[in-house]
From TrEMBL:
Keyword Transcription recorded: yes
Region annotation Disordered: where it falls in the sequence: 79-99
Organism domain of life: Bacteria
Protein name (database record): Sigma-70 family RNA polymerase sigma factor
Keywords tagged on the record: Sigma factor, Transcription, Transcription regulation
Gene3D superfamilies, A to Z: 1.10.1740.10, Tetratricopeptide repeat domain (1.25.40.10), Winged helix-like DNA-binding domain superfamily/Winged helix DNA-binding domain (1.10.10.10)
Domain RNA polymerase sigma factor 70 region 4 type: 113-162
Species of origin: Sinomonas terricola
Amino acid sequence: MTTDDAREAIARAYHEEWARVVASLTRRFGDLDIAEEAAAEAFAVAVERWPDDGVPPNPGAWLTTTANRKAIDRIRREHKRDDKHEEARMLYDDDKSEPRGAVDDDRLRLIFTCCHPALGMEARMALTLRMVAGLTVPEIAHAFLVQESAMGRRITRAKAKIKAARIPYRVPSAEDLQARVSGVLAVLFLVFNEGYLATGPDTGPLRPALTAEAIRLTRLLRALMPDDGEVAGLLALMLLIEARRAARVAAGGELVPLDEQDRGAWDAALIAEGHRLVRERLATGTPPGRYQILAAINAVHTSAREARDTDWSQIVALYDQLVRLGPSPVVALNRAVAVAELDGPEMALAAVDRLEESLGGYRAYHATRAELLRRLGRSGESRAAYDKAIELAGNTGETAYLTRQRDQLGQNGGYFFAGARRIARSRRRP
C-alpha cells in the first residue's frame, strides 16, 4: 500500500467513522473533551501506522479500540488515588445495560446531548457539528459566516459549560424531544449542507457521506416524531436536493447549474418521496415552518419537466412566506434571485446590494451580484464580483465554475453557479 492510499483510507475513515467513535466514547466515559481528544489521537496513530502496517480490515473498530485505550490512559493520568473506585467504574463499565430510551442510535443521542437547552442555540449547533459531524472549525465558521477564531472560542466555551454545569450524557426522554428538536434540525441541515456543497478549499464539491448520514439521522428522527411537521419538512428538503446529486458535477469536476443538469439523471424515487411528504404536510392545513417552505420551493423546482417550465411566481410567493416567518439576509438573497426571473436583473440587483453589510463575506452574495451585473451589461463590475466570489469559494468544483463564468464575460453562453440563476432561462434551486 502506498502512502497516498493510506492517506485516502484515513480521510475516508474520518468522514465515515468520526461520529461513531466520538459517540461511543462519550457514552462510555461521559466526557466530551475525553471523547474528542481520544478520537483525534486515534486518527493520529492511524496516520503513523497505516502506511506501514496497512489499513485494518475494520477501520471503525480499530479506531474505536485505539481511542478507548487513549481515553483510559488519559483518565489514569488525571485521576487521583482517592478516585480509584470511580476510575475503575469508568474504565471497565461499558454501560451496555443502559436503557436506550427514546433514541436508539448513539450518534443521534449525542446530537440531542449536545443540543442541551442550557446552551445557546448557536453554541449547540457549533458543538454538535464538531463532535458529531466531525466538521473542522473553519468549515463550521464558514457555515455560520463568522471568523475561525471566534468559532473556536464558541466551541471551547460550550464544552466548558457542559463540564462546569455537569450536564450528563444521557438518553433523552420522550418529553425532552420537543424542547430540543429545533436545534437538532438545524444541526442536521448544516451537516447536510456541508455534504451538498463542501467548503474545504482543496476538496471536491460534494461529500456524499455527510448527506447520507444527515438523511439517515433525519429518518430516525422522523420515526421518533412522526407528527412533527418540521421534521417531515427537513426530510423532504434533503431528499429533493439529494435527488439531483448525480447531475450536479460534470465529468471534469465542475459544478453544473440546475438549468443545465440532465434531469433524466435525477433520482425519481427520492423526488417522489419528497413530493409525498410535502403533500402530506399541506393536507394537514397546519401553517408550515421554515423547512416545510424550503421543501415546497424545491418541490416546485423538481416538478418542472424542463428548466423553462419552472413556476417562478410560486417560488417568489413561497419566499415571501419564508421572509414573514423569519427574515434573514440569506433568505433575502435567494428571494432576490427568484425575483430576477420575474422582474429582471435591475430590481434584483437593488435588493442584493442592500445586503452588502451582512453578506459581504459570503461567496454566494458576490456570485449573485456578478451574474446580475453581467446581465445588465456591466462587465467590469461583474468581473470584480466574480473575482471576490472566487476568492471566497470553498471547493475545487465551485472555483472552477466561477472561474469559467468570469472568463466567459462578454461571450455567449450559459452562466451562473449554485446560488444564483441564469435569468434568460429557468434556473437552479436558490
